[in-house]
Amino acid sequence: MSVSASGYLRIGSTDVDAWMDFGTGVLGMMDAQREDTGGARFLRLDDHPFRFMVEPAEADGLIATGLEFPDEDAFIRTCEALVEAGHTVTEGSADNAKRRCVTAFATVVDPSGNTIELYWGRELDYTPLISPQGVAGFVTSYQQTGDMGFGHLVLPAPDFDATSAFYTEIIGMGITDILYPPGMEGAKIHFMHANNPRQHSLALFNAPHPLGVVHIMIEVETMDELGRGMDRAKAAGAHFMATLGRHVNDNMCSVYLLAPGGIAVEFGYDGILIDPQTHVATVSTEGDLWGHEYSFPRVED
Fold first, then answer.
1. Which domain holds residue 261?
2. Residue 300: inside a domain
3. Does residue 81 register a pLDDT over 90?
4. Which residue intervals define the domain VOC in the entry (predicted)?
5. Distances from the Cα of 173 to the Cα of 3, 11, 197, angstroms
6. Which pLDDT score, from 0 to 100, does residue 126 have?
7. Nearest to residue 171, comparing CAs of 275, 51, 70, 67?
8. Residue at 298 is within a domain
């Protein structure tokens, strides 16, 4: 296994200021206040220079997912394996690498059309997190195991089998759990872990999505932090796509909120940790232990 974590996201927004207000005012992330010639704004969760790059765009949705590799060798070997498998891999320029605060990166599109940025050597600035809402910390690392990434995301994968093979056989992820969601005939989700203890860093849903992402997740350290986030969301008038509940497979206690533009954000606490070297994949037919009453808004294609 080579990939270390889901490191960052590039999010396109028709209202960058509104997304930043949601990220800082509701979720409690920190405005990284980085200069950018493209007009992007940056949100940080920890000592990484940013975890979310919010970019001006004509349409709302996910632009790209940054997957982190432990070193240059793993990065190069994965890029070579992708080319050998027939995928087009585009090397990122030095200027664009600097914009992402990485040593090097390359772009590839998975079989379902999701843009992935593979990178290594994140350049940390060690600026401490100062949450404008007093959030003590987000769960992005664990003891001596190191970085666990920003959280997780679920990508649409209408070409499901080929896309799952792309991530497991080439990128280097492992399947943690296979979910057949109740009440959704024909639906299937592969939850995948990277080389860190987070139960899943990326998941695939076997259907398209107009925003290019089913949801993203960030995790706080205590139940009280989750509760305070819920209060902020209610005060801000944010749409709760799912009420408070706890998932079966990763034990996450969470709510789902809609960010400006419609991307669903799971705001959670208490996700389980696994041993990525020894974990045996499970199969689930229930999504929740309790709660999570869903209210899906209409999203136009």
1. 5-122+147-291
2. no
3. yes
4. 5-121, 149-270
5. 7, 23, 12
6. 86
7. 67
8. no
